Amino acid sequence: MRLDKFLVACAVGSRTEVKNFLKSGRVTVNGKKEKSAKLQIDEETDEICFDGQKLDYEEFVYYMMNKPQGVISATEDPKHKTVLDLLDDYARAKEVFPVGRLDIDTHGLLLLTNDGKLAHALLSPKRHVDKTYLAQVKGIMTDTDVETFAKGIPLKDFTCQPAKLELVSIDTEKDQSLVRVTIAEGKFHQVKRMVAYCGKEVVDLQRLTMGTLTLDEDLKRGEWRRLSKEELEVLLESVQ
């Protein structure tokens, strides 16, 4: 790997900043000052330091975010704030991206990584990775709706795979239902459209799980953290 690319990946600075740091002698390779951006280094065996601090290279990084409402699940958007805007410089330098998408008004679990192989495995229609949502619904969901979800709902543009609808709580006075929905696909507005097919309306939607990942209850909306070693191991095992 080129030295300048390594330094950018370690979030030392932009490519332009990195070249200036090299010129000013702030970077050492195996104890010697190095000024060539083009130098080929071995990120596994060479010791690269910036201002005397050893830099550790990670090829892939994995983050769990509690996505807030009003933020786009994209790497860039001309009109709205994106989930990348919530991350720090290091995460952005690693060129992470959201795995799948949550609608702008949907909140909850979102995985961000730069591991394209994992992302493809999780999103592949062949794998049927379960995703669970908690939905606040205007209207009373019934056992009949549970059966309708289980059969697979025919929408205008596609027929949903059989899905699991659980009635968490019913408030007849307020004409509201709290339900848990588990689907193995993730079409545009799918949960909202499935509920609408049953004659009700989703007024709040939160994703709780994706595959083996479960939203950390300690993460406030807009907060994020690295996956734990255990979470990552289980997740990678699940797609092998």
UniProtKB/TrEMBL annotation:
Q: What is its EC number?
A: 5.4.99.-
Which GO molecular function annotations are given, in alphabetical order? RNA binding; rRNA pseudouridine synthase activity
Q: Which InterPro entries match?
A: PsdUridine_s_RsuA/RluB/E/F_cat (IPR042092), PsdUridine_synth_cat_dom_sf (IPR020103), PsdUridine_synth_RsuA/RluA (IPR006145), PsdUridine_synth_RsuA/RluB/E/F (IPR000748), PsdUridine_synth_RsuA/RluB_CS (IPR018496), RsuA_PseudoU_synthase (IPR050343), S4_RNA-bd (IPR002942), S4_RNA-bd_sf (IPR036986)
Q: Which UniProt keywords apply?
A: Isomerase, RNA-binding
Q: Name one GO biological process term.
A: enzyme-directed rRNA pseudouridine synthesis
Enzyme class of the recorded protein, top EC level:
isomerase
Q: Which family does it belong to?
A: Belongs to the pseudouridine synthase RsuA family.
Q: What is this protein called?
A: Pseudouridine synthase
Q: From which source organism is this entry?
A: Streptococcus infantis ATCC 700779
